[in-house]
Amino acid sequence: MAVRFDPSVPEAGDGPARRPSDMLEEVIDALTEGLAIFDENAVLLRFNAGFSEMNPAVADLLAEGLDWSILLREWVMRGGLSAGDAERLSFMEARLAGGDWMVTPLEIEAGDRVTEILLRSTAAGGFVLVQSDVTERRAFEETERAADQLVRKVLESCPANIIMSRVGDGEVIYRSPAATELLGSAEHTHAHFASRAERADFITAVLPDGRVDDMPVTGIRADGARFPSLVSARLIQYRGEDVLVSSTIDVSKEVELRRRLAAQREQIFQAEKMSALGELLAGVAHELNNPLSVVVGHALMLRDEDISDDVLRRVEKISDAAERCARIVKSFLAMARQQPARLVPMDISETVETAVGALSQSAEGLGAEVSLDISPDLPPVRGDAHQIAQVVINLVTNADQAIGESGTGGRIDISLTHDAAAQMVELRVADDGPGIPKGIRSRIFDPLFTTKPVGSGTGIGLALCHRIVTAHSGVISLAEGGQGATLLVRLPTTEADAGNAPSQKDAEISAGRGAVLVVDDEEDVSDLIREILLRDGFEVTVANSAETALDLLAGQDFALILTDLNMPGLGGRGFYERLLRDLPAMARRMGFVTGDTMSPQARGFLDGAGRPFLEKPIAPDELRRLARTMLEGGA
């Protein structure tokens, strides 16, 4: 037979039955929160131990039947609650009475503890007060808030360009001030890339692994200018969506530095190439210069002889070919040697006119029509007239050859103007020829680079021009645009008083004639020098060694001594040093005629001696000019 269990009837052996109200009291007291129940008249019906412990200031006052308003008043008077908090709790209770079922919690501080009070209405018209200790939670929140503030402060002051953006539409969620300064304040990151294709490549690179490091892209600055940059990024989850955190580094300075280093490496390479070329040419030139001197010198003198037109034509062909060989050798030597220019105040107008006139009157002449436009009253330029003339000759010759070989154009315009603001004189050589292809414009000043057929060019002309102009503290460049090619040479002017320098006409003093001692181990060369000087009215004695010359000087006085540098035995250097020691007056009358100006030893000796020298191959006019200058006390 089944037995019905009635929980209200105690079983045999049990104590008195527990009432549900007793169980409810135990549950309420076991709560960690403070609990107080008020009826519809705001009278305290029940409270638990938690409420008493959280509010020690009114713990002794708590009892059933306590009015809500009295509780608030005593709570304030005993220091457990501020007047403002009491006013807010009273307002919250009024809202519940007005029909609200729950009011926003209120935090109150009492000593080092923070509690949160929540009021909630009951079905009977009263309300329940629930009080929770939130001290630890508030401490944690304060720590988190401080950490967030620290992170924000670091990001705001960090020099790195940091941007948070959505992957899908590129909308910017956050950007650091440094990023705003560099990239501007556009709403989407599309504006930070030079093209949509670059941003698409960036997204494609970052998605597979969620990261990308130092990806090169072209960025857009806040002012709209483009710049090279490196972008690194990480893919993260933020509020349920994919977000990119990226950093952009401006590498403009690094790119420019790499460009400069590359240019410097190229300069070093060219210098090494020219140094190697110089070492090779030093030996070759020494062997070529002596026979070339003989060919050039005798050919030039034969032109003055009374010979038939047919023979004269052949002599001129020999002379032109020999002079061309001599010019090629001297160009290579000048390029490899990097001889410093002798800068003095000079009339650049006269130099340009002389150079153009020499080209026009040469045997080959100029095929193109040349116009010369020189501004009046140009200031003097500090330079080496011979080297500037070489620049003009090379530029005009190149233009004329380009026009002749291409069959395009037929005019070369040369102008000289003064840029007073920059204190520069500008030489412009413009032609209407085929121009220079874009692909090689950056190489036209490189040594040994030429577009001419084999045998027609050495690749030295423009490189030599560049070196000469640079040595004069000037600039040579290829102008952009226009028909044909336009080369610009800008040279600094000088404030030197041109009037203080003697003019060429004033310096034309009748050359005094005197005895000349020529010392050279090559008999053909010494005979050539002797013949040239004899025709100019000098008395010439020849010695084929330094030792023989010393013997001659022991018993004879000479107004001028011209000696080779490299000879067997004592040689030109030993000869000069011996004269410095024994006959210093004679040493001051010495000049050198040599084919070796390339080697460091010869270059160092000539610079240290400070005596005039003439470089082989010998041209009669140059030899006569050297002799006259030395006799007139100009060297």
From TrEMBL:
Its EC number is 2.7.13.3. Coiled coil: none annotated. Residues 515-631 form the Response regulatory domain. Signal peptide: none annotated. The modification 4-aspartylphosphate is found at D564. Residues 283-495 form the Histidine kinase domain. It comes from the Bacteria. It is an enzyme of class 2 (transferase). Keywords: ATP-binding, Kinase, Nucleotide-binding, Phosphoprotein, Transferase, Two-component regulatory system. This is histidine kinase.
